[in-house]
């Protein structure tokens, strides 16, 4: 007679992924390494049809093979949410309210919500997990966030990678981390949801700053000082906005995620900043990239939060002044030099 626990292990975990971008595609690839069934919602119907026919995402990470035995694509979101255990959000933060506007609390009832978004809800200036909790009356213990250091492009190449999963209920984080662990990826769980989520947001802003300095012709020496000062700004922000007794900012979910975003050629926020440093306007840089740089929206939110707490964050201020205040990048970074040590 088969024991219940043994039978349970053979039943695939039902997961919904919302979003059709590179990170969503990478997460689908990772999850397919384990015993899962995935319902994948993608906004563009043409992409849904293409994946069904050719088992590749035509718009992002086009070399990744989508396993048709484990993955079904959907254009109607409500169908993708039926009968699932986990819902992974991989939609740019700015589009979360409009994308989910037709959903109700019942769609999320009894399900675990995983945010793979490293941004904030514009205008409301709140984290994605906070917005979801308020919009759909979700228990925070059923939510978790994914942090790096990890780029979708390296997942596509199956390069060894690491993820940090954070939730106020560590058991929730660990259960999802178990679904990610595979031959080329290791995931571990921690309890600092807000600390990890805020850090993931701010590191995108720092990546824009790094890109700007590169575009202006600054070298490795300056970027090393910029990033080390940025880590201090992150600490100042977190200690004031969301203090925690158990938080190691030197661990990979914080410092590691910052480093990979600040230095990597795959970082879209760094690319966005690089274009600004080279003289592109914000609008022209966004149009040429054809991808969302979360730091563009996040810097306004973090700037306003920092000012409400009377915090001195020179790097955040500099990026805000360039992106929203239309400050000259060369002049603004020239002023920033005097604040770094």
From TrEMBL:
Its EC number is 1.1.1.94. SUPFAM superfamilies: 6-phosphogluconate dehydrogenase C-terminal domain-like (SSF48179), NAD(P)-binding Rossmann-fold domains (SSF51735). GO terms for biological process: carbohydrate metabolic process; glycerol-3-phosphate catabolic process; phospholipid biosynthetic process. PROSITE patterns: NAD_G3PDH. Substrate binds at residues 118, 268-269. NAD(+) binds at residues 95, 152, 268. Residues 192-331 form the Glycerol-3-phosphate dehydrogenase NAD-dependent C-terminal domain. PANTHER family: GLYCEROL-3-PHOSPHATE DEHYDROGENASE, GLYCEROL-3-PHOSPHATE DEHYDROGENASE [NAD(+)] 2, CHLOROPLASTIC. This is Glycerol-3-phosphate dehydrogenase.
């Amino acid at each position: 007679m088969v024991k219940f626990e043994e039978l349970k292990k053979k039943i695939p975990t039902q997961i919904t992924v919302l979003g059709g971008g590179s990170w969503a595609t990478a997460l689908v690839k990772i999850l397919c390494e384990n015993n899962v069934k995935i319902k994948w919602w993608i906004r563009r119907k043409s992409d849904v049809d293409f994946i069904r026919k050719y088992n590749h995402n035509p718009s992002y990470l086009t070399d990744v093979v989508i396993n048709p035995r484990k993955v079904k694509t959907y254009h109607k979101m409500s169908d993708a949410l039926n009968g699932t255990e986990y819902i992974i959000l991989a939609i740019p933060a700015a589009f979360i309210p409009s994308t989910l506007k037709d959903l109700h609390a019942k769609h999320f009832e009894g399900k675990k919500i995983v945010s793979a978004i490293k941004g904030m809800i514009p205008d409301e200036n709140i984290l994605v997990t906070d917005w979801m909790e308020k919009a759909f009356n979700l228990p925070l213990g059923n939510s978790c966030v994914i942090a790096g250091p990890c780029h979708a492009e390296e997942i596509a190449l199956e390069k060894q990678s690491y993820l940090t999963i954070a939730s106020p209920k560590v058991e929730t984080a660990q259960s999802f981390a178990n679904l990610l662990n595979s031959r080329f990826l290791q995931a571990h769980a921690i309890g600092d949801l807000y600390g990890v989520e805020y850090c993931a947001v701010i590191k995108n802003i720092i990546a824009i700053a790094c890109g700007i300095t590169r575009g202006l012709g600054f070298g490795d020496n300056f970027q090393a000082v910029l990033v080390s000062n940025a880590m201090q700004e992150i600490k100042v922000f977190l200690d004031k906005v969301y203090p925690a007794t158990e938080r190691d900012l030197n661990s990979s979910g914080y410092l590691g995620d910052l480093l990979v975003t600040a230095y990597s050629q795959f970082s879209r926020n760094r690319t966005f900043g690089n274009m600004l440093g080279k003289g592109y306007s914000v609008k022209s840089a966004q149009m040429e990239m054809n991808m969302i740089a979360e730091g563009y929206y996040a810097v306004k939110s973090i700037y306003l939060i920092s000012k409400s707490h009377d915090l001195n964050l020179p790097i955040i201020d500099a990026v805000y002044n360039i992106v929203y205040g239309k400050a000259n990048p060369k002049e603004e970074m020239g002023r920033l030099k005097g604040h770094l040590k």
